[in-house]
Structure formats: structure tokens, C-alpha cells
């Protein structure tokens, strides 16, 4: 089991390894905003506050919707991101969510993330 701390809503849950960030939020009422569930709308954008190394690789949908700009600042899409084998903490912010939602998806290109 791993811990996911949804800092913005103040909820911390225990989840099985390889759990999806948005699915766990929905199941435990942790409040991460969402809409499409498919990596298109950007509503579920969150900032990784702790444990970036415990998240799986960045998906093509995230590269398109977030672009290098937001990925480099430590943002991911909750519907596309899974916790691997360690604890994570994350937050979200209305102003950022609005900006990401409005962002036009870019073409896929290789984005360097660590
Ligand atoms: S819910 Fe739409 S991108 Fe995640």
C-alpha cells in the first residue's frame, strides 16, 4: 500500500500500488477536479509536491495538454497518472486549472522530464 496525500482537500488515503490518482480521489472523495477522464480537458491537473519519483512515466496526452511548460514545473494530469511503489503528495489550484484547460493541445514532441 502507498499513501496519497491530497493536500488541497486535506485528505490522505492508503491505496494499492499502481493506483490511478484521479480514480482514488473519486473513490475516497478527495476532491481532485475532473471532467473527461481521458487526458483531454486538463481539469485534473495537479502539482506534485512530494514523491515525483513514485509516479509513473509521463503519457503522450500529458505532453500534449500540459506541454513542456507545465511538465517542467511539476504538473501532471490525475486521470493519466499512477502511483507506483511509494508515497506522494499533491495539490491543485483553480487559477492553474483554468490556464491548463484553456491551453491548446500541442503536437506530440519529445519532452524532457526527470
Ligand atoms: S479529467 Fe480531463 S484531462 Fe484528466
If you had to describe this structure to a student in words, what would you say it looks like?
The chain is of the alpha+beta class. It has one domain: Roll (Ubiquitin-like (UB roll)), CATH 3.10.20. Helix content is 25%, strand content 20%. The chain contains 3 helices and 5 strands; from the N terminus they run ββαβαββα. It has helices at 21-27, 60-72, 94-102, and strands at residues 2-6, 11-15, 45-50, 75-77, 88-91. Strands 2-1-5-3-4 form a 5-stranded mixed sheet, sandwiched between helices. Strand 1 and strand 2 (11-15) form a beta hairpin. The longest helix has 13 residues, at 60-72. It starts with a strand and ends in a 12-residue tail after the last helix. 28% of the residues are buried. The model has no long low-confidence stretch (mean pLDDT 94). The chain binds FE2/S2 (inorganic) cluster. FE2/S2 (inorganic) cluster is lined by residues 34-37, 39-44, 77-79.
